[in-house]
Design brief:
The structure holds 2 protein chains of 2 kinds.
Chain A: H1 3-19, H2 32-44, H3 64-69, H4 72-84, H5 88-91, H6 113-122, H7 137-150
Chain B: H1 2-15, H2 29-61, H3 70-107, E1 115-122, E2 125-131, E3 139-142, E4 144-148, E5 153-159, E6 164-167, E7 174-177, E8 183-187, E9 193-198, E10 211-217, H4 219-230, H5 239-250, H6 253-256, E11 280-281, E12 286-287, H7 290-298, H8 300-303, H9 316-327
Parallel strand pairs in B: 1-5, 4-10
Antiparallel strand pairs in B: 1-2, 2-3, 5-8, 6-7, 9-10, 11-12
Helix pairs in contact in B: 2-3, 5-9, 7-9
The chains are: A mainly alpha, B alpha+beta.
Chain lengths: 193, 330
Amino acid sequence: MSSRCRTSLLVLAALALLAGCDREERRSRGNPLGEAALGEAALGGPRVSTLQPGVPIASPPDARAADFEENAYAVSQGQQLFRQMNCSGCHAHGGGGMGPALMDDRWRYGGTMEQIVASIDQGRPNGMPSWRGKLTPQQMWQLAAYVRSLSAQPRQDVLSGRAESESATEPPTLRSREPMVPSSAAGVKGTTQ
Amino acid sequence: MTRALRGLGLAALLGGCHGIQSMTEGAGFQGEQFSGLFTLFLAVTGFFYILVILGLIGGLVLRRRADRDEAGEKTARIGLVGWLGAVLVGLTGLTVASYVMDRNVAAASPARPPLEVQITGNQWWWDVTYKNGVPGQEVRTANELHLPVGVPVRLTLKTNDVIHSFWVPALGGKQDMIPGRTNALTVLPTRIGSYRGQCAEYCGAQHAHMALDVTIEPLAAFRKWWAAGLAPAAPPATPLAQAGYRFVMTQQCASCHNISGTPASGRFGPDLTHVASRRSIGAGTFPMTPGHLFAWVADPQGAKPGNHMPYIGLNADQLHAVVAYLEGLK
């Protein structure tokens, strides 16, 4: 093979590698149609939840879950909201305080994206307020993606290596992924009979 | 014809140096001092630059003769000594001028200026708080800076997220805003007028749309503006504005925005108490007109993509109501 041919092959290979730099799409507007539909449907009735602590529940899968969770921009927006909306006031940077820890393997109301969004949207007994109408659905999905990143659930390259404010905990990139323990009545002490 | 066009083009380029965001048309003592020093440096270094170029041309034209005599050696030596002397005088002059300017600026910055303004950089807007030592007298606003002419002002510079840089070219001085640090800059406005500031450190997608409307006004007008800023927000006047008020208070708006005198007390978006009295929307992105206000509230991500105000998805009635309420916040 001539050196010229080798050079052009190398350039081609470098160009092919460059294509890998397109990591993700940053969608700042979210998906207006889907969100509007969710907002309208949700605004109608009273805020009733069928979720019970400790009882395994089926939550309808949502196409947006993977979309937001596998997006570093969404995770970092959620990280900012986590501080701004004072989630740390009860959940203390995910370590738990007045509210339950978010970085461990226990999920009273489920730990999938859909279940976390439901918890933020509807609120939960004993302190978790409902954020419906206070945050947009897009922001709730972003928050859920960040909450999942606290136990290192998303892909490694999506996790944030930087804390939003001074924090004693390690950044998600240095944490090991917690297993998702299916919620069971025995898993939550004192919440079921 | 071509020459005239070229001249016009040059004039248009030079025109860019003037106006509301200009370093050369100083509106602040510090800026004028810097501008004067810059002119002096330009003149002195330009003079020496021309000398060097002339010397080079001379060297090319008058080639060194092979049979140098004693007199030629002497002339060269005198020329060299003269050159060294000129460089020495020039450098000393510049050093002295720089020192004098530095002292002048220091003398114009009292240790405790009568007015302190805290400016916090955010992606991508400015949070501005006026302080005079009395907590109840604090005025908080956003993306606008009113300064009294002839009064030294201490600007305390912070940031909530990434590195920004405070820069009002007319006032002079550029200071970075570093996370976790408080920087300070003292300015002394000298000329009444409207100016524009701009973030001078790349800070993300909307760095270019992070501008600050600066108004330098007489002391009496400034006092009046401060007093007006202390007043709570105007109550909604029309039924439409009242509907907007209810939406703003009960829905997403109040999570991030503060409107003094109402339940809306969020702190992560710009203060909206007197938003309609400002010159621009979205940190200098659009002029404050009803049309732009509609566009902004309807779809902030279309108006300034990437900014932290989410798309809320108002229907037409809600949009009209919210804009009617915001327009009343003079």
